[in-house]
Amino acid sequence: EDFPGRHKYESGLFTGKDPDNMWAADADAMVRTWDPNPEMSPSVPFLKFPYPCKGYVGGEKGFDPLNITDNYPVYWLREAELKHGRICMLATVGWIATDLGLRFPGEKFQGVSTFDAHEIMVSNGYMEVLAGMILTAEVYGWLLFYDGWMGTIDREAGDFYVGKKFLPSDLQKADEMRLKELENGRLAMLAFSGIITQAYLTKGGTWPFMG
After folding, report:
1. How far apart are CA 197 and CA 209, in angstroms?
2. CA 120, CA 127: separation in Å to the nearest integer?
3. How confident is the model at residue 162 (pLDDT cuts 50, 70, 90)?
4. What does the pLDDT read at residue 55?
């Protein structure tokens, strides 16, 4: 079998740093060698197991058909996945809630459809405060991400130090909760994409887009 970069593996030495430390206890050790009988992915049995996923919650399923984890650090990927999943979980609930009639108090927020709300709020100048809040959160998140990636703080991807106290003390049950968040976030990303598409195709229709 051939694939890009195969010579790096066959040489017996993976050329490059191993930031996710998947191959040895020593972070500086490069021991990722060519394996003629690789472990296969449980979720996609005809593909090799994505070894960089080992040690990450959900990684035991071995789902990476595009081999993204061979090209980007899993820490980066998990950070992005959790962030977008969390945003989409909030966005999905928020979109459905406003489609069902929930509004902020104030005349300016009434009579505006969910589909048109962003454009109307921007044109009326009401998004500046929200933009400032988002910018503040983004700067804080970037600093945590950078320090965690560089190893200056002990931080898991996606950890903002506000939710761990709600995790069970049992490590296995805590990982189960992490997996639930991950999978619900993935579902929400698909759900929100579907909601946006349906709203556009129905020209501003409301959830559940039956009419």
Report:
1. 11
2. 10
3. confident
4. 86
Nearest-angstrom CA–CA distance, 22 and 53:
8
What is d(CA 32, CA 23) in angstroms, rounded to the nearest whole number?
Answer: 6
CA distance 161 to 82: 14
Give me the pLDDT at residue 67, please.
Answer: 87
85-99: average pLDDT: 96
Nearest Cα neighbor of 99 from 211, 210, 208 is 208
Distance (Å, whole) CA 98 – CA 96: 6
Amino acid making up residue 189: M
In degrees and rounded to multiples of 5, residue 4 shows phi and psi of -60, 130
Q: For residues 90 and 93, give the distance between their C-alpha atoms in angstroms, rounded to a whole number.
A: 5
Give the integer Cα–Cα distance in Å for 2 and 209: 47
Mean pLDDT computed over 179-193: 96
Q: Tokens representing 97?
A: 């809630």
Distance CA 44, CA 210 (A): 35
Residue 101 pLDDT exceeds 80: yes
How far is 90 from 88, CA to CA, in rounded Å? 5
Burial profile 5-40: b = 16 or more Cβ within 10 angstroms, e = fewer: eeebeeeeebeeebebebbeeeeeebebeeeeeeee
The pLDDT tens digits of the residues spanning 127-140 come to 898 899 999 999 99
- Confidence tier at 35 by pLDDT (50, 70, 90): low
